[in-house]
Amino acid sequence: MPTNQLLEINKNTCTDLVCFSHLRWDFVYQRPQHLMSRFAKQYRTFFVEEPLFHDSGDRLQIRLTEENVWIVTPYLSSAATDKQSIVTRQKQLINTLFADKKIEKFIAWYYTPMALKISSHLNAQVVVYDCMDELAAFKFAPAELKIMEAELFSKAHVVFTGGYSLFEAKKHAHRNIFPFPSSIDKTHFSKGRNKLNEPYDQQQITRLRFGFYGVIDERFNIQMIKEVAEKRPEWQLVLLGPVVKINPEDLPKLPNIHYLGSKSYSELPVYLSGWDFAIIPFEKNESTKYISPTKTPEYLAAGKPVISTSITDVVNPYGDKKLVYIADNADEFIKSAETELAKSNKQIKQWLSKVDAFLKDISWDCTTAEMMDKINDCLAEQNTTGQASKLKSVA
Question: Residue 198 to residues 96, 189, 211: CA-CA distances in angstroms?
């Protein structure tokens, strides 16, 4: 079917997109934010967060971001926190949202299967499951998550995965599933190739600098970072991001390890510009088995040599194509850095040319457009059959 015809079907059958997420909009700017910001150019887009508890009554906090995404945060009274009450009250708040905003013809987009509990009564035109991670492998994951995911697979019209390894693990669970690995906003991160004014907290740190940004959690290879810092005390390790799900006291405290805290998405290229290397020091465990780090192409767009542990979706394609170094321990890390430092200017330019050729057709705009094609196929099918998706109650 021609694209213009598909878009007409889309226009006539769906005006809103409601995204249910386990990640908060203001936590770390990543895949959900990139995609929802772009979908908001076509749909009225609502991003429903998990609830927060307070001492007052139940209510919704709704605000509009500069990307034109409505952020919906349920606030629940802490007076009643039993599981069934939490689900029932969230449903009531969702009903209020739909009534107040007159949400009728919509796409239901899920990042967490657990959200089925509060949305099982809604009638979506199309149900999308963007499976960006193997959430069941993460620390503190709900025991019933796998059961809920199986339910979501049965409801979804289309499933996207956050990488190729996750696609291989899930491809038999759904008939209409597609891999969409980490993408990039090249214009934003290519600023990191320029010499930019140093942020104050990084100005004080001498070179060489090895930088990381992202969430510092159970996936972070603390031991390797500690050993590199001990073996090369003249190298500076700059770590940006929130510490969650682990005790901050367990992180190594050495003079050449610098924890600078969370930074905004807009600040990242400024910090990157002052790094000599960018690193992805993740553990090899169940929580990292299927991840596709968004930071890999972002680091490369900034023109920084990258050292990563052997995460499957980093090894293939980035390691295999010699775009990044793969190192699983401190000695391999140090050897990779020393190899890079010995390169001539000609070799560096050749590597950058390979990087740019690889990144040429990768962008969040392209990813969004390709996802839209898959959704339009579902909308066309729904338009043909005249049937909307009725989610059965799973509460």
Answer: 47, 16, 14
Domain-embedded: residue 155: yes
φ, ψ at 59 (rounded to 5°):
-160, 165
Buried b (16+ CB within 10 A) or exposed e, 68-79: ebbbbbbbbeee
Write out pLDDT tens, residues 114-156.
999 999 899 999 999 999 988 777 766 777 889 999 999 999 9
Q: Are 292 and 181 in contact (CB under 8 A)?
A: yes
Alpha helices for 232-321 (secondary structure H): 268-272, 295-301, 312-314
In this structure, the answer to whether residues 176 and 243 fall within a common structural domain is: no
- Measured between alpha carbons, how far is 392 from 263 in angstroms, rounded to an integer? 41
Whether pLDDT at 391 is above 70: no
Q: Are 105 and 14 in contact (CB under 8 A)?
A: yes
| Alpha helices in the chain, H assignment, sequence order | 3-13, 31-39, 83-100, 116-119, 145-155, 164-170, 186-189, 200-203, 222-231, 268-272, 295-301, 312-314, 330-341, 345-359, 364-385
Tens of pLDDT, residues 301-347: 999 999 999 999 999 999 999 999 999 999 999 999 999 999 999 99
Cα dihedral sign, 354-356-362-364: positive
Q: Please check whether residue 233 lies inside any domain of the structure.
A: yes
Residues facing 60 on adjacent strands:
74
Joined tokens for residue 181 = 């690995």
Residue 142: the pLDDT is 79
Q: Are 41 and 132 within one domain?
A: yes
pTM of the model: 0.88
Residue 229 near residue 257, CB atoms below 8 Å: yes
Q: Residue 395 domain-assigned?
A: no
Helix, strand, coil fractions of the chain, as percent rounded to 5: 45, 20, 35
Mean pLDDT score of the chain: 91
